[in-house]
Write a structure and sequence with these properties.
Alpha-Beta Plaits; 2 domains; four-stranded antiparallel β-sheet; alpha+beta; Ribosomal Protein S5, domain 2; 12 strands; seven-stranded mixed β-sheet; homodimer
Chain lengths: ~325, ~325
């Protein structure tokens, strides 16, 4: 018993995994950044019985509490099945983010879960090695194992998914001066639906324009150039197809630009929208203009989140044991 | 007469415009860098008779000496017709680069020409304003006003053509540590032919992979990361179509990688190929392996150029008047 305790078999952790802005407009499926808030929380501790004991606490409807359908439980199961620790895990997902927000809600749950499981292992994996489990949560949630939300939620910063086959995620060095305004209207867009309406083929000219913008986006993030980043959020591939899923999209975008945003488009597949600002002061003005436009043109209330890039990603807090 | 001389009406200039590596693999039509050598030279001076008096000096065949067909004369005409100075220009193009080399030969001629004309004006335009004239040389040469050679030859450094409509060229800040190996085999690929075989449409998945690489290329250039840049030269769009135009392509690429290159593919539309090296020493090894492979598999001799990015672009030298 004393030996067991020195190895902290009953230790417990609380993990916060942040929301993310994927795509950033032109960087469809390849770019994502972590922001400070919102995020999902997982609390977990070891139990002697092997396997997963899973529950959900949330105010949001539509969050599956059944472990078979919840992404957090799914990825925890995958990890436990593969790594086979000699103990089990009791896990509670505090689901704070609504599903279908465009802020990487499923990614935050998956990341919080894998980071929590990892923190409880005797020999935790390097954080990057958790990516392959976390993307499986995305596959379950939307049918596609896209990594542009899970990577920044897990690793923090700006992540470039250079390749999916094999998965190659690059953390881009940035000058973290740009202020990101995120407005989440009380609407739901299913990632699955948003992916289905994407075109299967692109004219070469359209693709060239998109990768010109991706290059500018990356260069602008590296140098902290809000004007360049804003301009390069221009998305000639996904925005056209997806904007119609978000009532008020065009009016909100126009309001943001008029209020001084350097660029504005969908966060992920929407309905949340983000804008690029040069300062906190500008960000406040822009967020007001955007929420006002959503209220007026879509008749929905919004949450607003303003932050620089969250360079830390998921955070682990050890909970003192009684 | 003394007043005229103080305004230097007879001044003469010599302009060197450097070769360029366009595309850099994945950055088809959007990325280009200037290198130190080779390049084209224009010598020009004012004459009292308005209009252009044009001649060519070259060892290369296929270079049109007729002013109606030469890109340098074409862009000089455009500038003179639009700006209408009260004098004319006597211009000699010293055509040092072969046509169809994949090193931006037509761009170097156009750039040297517009920079020379500009240097002779009483009120020269800002250098960036010369881009719109120089791209017209590309339109004449290949049918497409692509800017990924003329921009770096004119401005130096790494240029991103973010947009063609309107033309938006961004000079990317780079850590200039990467060494570029360029091997020019004595073969000719017509840019026009190389463009014609490009696919008109891309599967979305292919386009996403390409813009993931463009993002990595830009990030790697910004931070001076040769390994990242090399990896991201991966080109899933143009290389497949164009490699067959260059005998020995696959063997030369393999030889470069085996000799330590981080990446290797076509410069522009070929036949020249470039490789990414971490040091001058590595570059020497790589260039030997590449020329050997060209000699063995395509039975052609090569020129080799090794340099870092040329941050200056076209250079103007004033010629003392007798």
């Amino acid at each position: 018993m004393s030996t067991q305790q020195s190895r902290a078999p009953e230790r417990a952790v609380r993990v916060f995994a942040p929301a993310t802005i994927a795509n950033l407009g032109s960087g469809f499926d390849v770019l994502g950044i972590a922001i400070d808030r919102p995020g999902d929380v997982v609390v977990a501790h070891r139990i002697s019985e092997p396997g997963l004991n899973f529950s959900v606490q949330t105010e949001h409807q539509d969050v599956p509490s059944d472990a078979r359908h919840n992404v957090a439980a799914h990825v925890a199961h995958l990890m436990l099945n593969q790594l086979r620790p000699r103990f089990g895990i009791q896990m509670t997902l505090h689901k704070q983010m609504p599903i279908g927000s465009g802020l990487g809600s499923s990614a935050a749950s998956s990341v919080a879960s894998v980071v929590a499981v990892n923190a409880l292992l005797d020999a935790p994996l390097p954080r990057r090695d958790l990516l392959r489990f976390a993307v499986e949560g995305e596959r379950k949630a939307s049918g596609a194992p896209h990594a542009d939300n899970v990577a920044p939620s897990l690793l923090g910063g700006v992540c470039l998914i250079r390749s999916y086959d094999p998965l190659d995620v690059i953390s881009i060095r940035v000058r973290n001066t740009i202020v990101w305004v995120v407005v989440h209207p009380h609407l739901v867009v299913r990632t699955h639906d948003a992916r289905r309406i994407m075109p299967r083929h692109l004219p070469l000219k359209v693709a060239v324009r998109q990768w010109g913008n991706v290059g500018g986006l990356t260069a602008g993030l590296a140098s902290g150039d809000a004007a360049l980043v804003g301009k390069c959020t221009e998305d000639v591939v996904a925005e056209l197809a997806r904007a119609d899923l978000v009532p008020g999209f065009h009016e909100v975008k126009r309001a943001a630009l008029q209020a001084g945003a350097h660029g504005c488009t969908l966060s992920g597949s929407g309905p949340s929208m983000f804008a690029v600002a040069s300062s906190m002061r500008a960000a406040m003005q822009i967020s007001k203009a955007m929420t006002h436009a959503f209220a007026r043109h879509a008749r929905v209330p919004c949450e607003v989140y303003i932050s620089r890039v969250n360079m830390h990603g998921a955070r682990v807090y050890t909970i003192p044991q009684r």
